[in-house]
Write a structure and sequence with these properties.
By secondary structure, the protein is mostly beta strands. It has two helices and six strands.
């Protein structure tokens, strides 16, 4: 799996969803690269701790009401990179973009 072809992701397999990337993911869906000194950024994932879909996905990402969506933390190298907590679906967050 690769995040933006120009950037090494440290996410070599689906199994990495549960353990975290080998290097911090520092790039978002707009190809903005973040510095490790910046405050932690959160990323919409809809992913449970075991790497499967969480039930908290903002109504399949179509609902911006008071529903909740699961998020992870940009630049984390443990399981919190995909699942840390939930936010209201009306909040603005970043996305990870993968290709297989």
């Amino acid at each position: 799996m690769v995040l933006a072809r120009r950037h090494k992701s440290g996410v070599p397999s689906k199994q990495s969803l549960t353990t975290g990337p080998t290097v911090p993911v520092k790039i978002d869906e707009k190809l903005k690269v973040y510095d490790v000194s910046e405050p932690a950024k959160w990323v919409w994932t809809g992913t449970a701790a075991n790497g499967t879909q969480s039930s908290e996905r903002c109504g399949e990402w179509a609902n911006q009401s008071t529903m909740l969506g699961r998020y992870g933390t940009l630049m984390a190298t443990d399981a919190t990179w995909v699942t840390l907590n939930t936010h209201y679906c009306s909040d603005i967050g970043r996305l990870y973009c993968f290709e297989q």
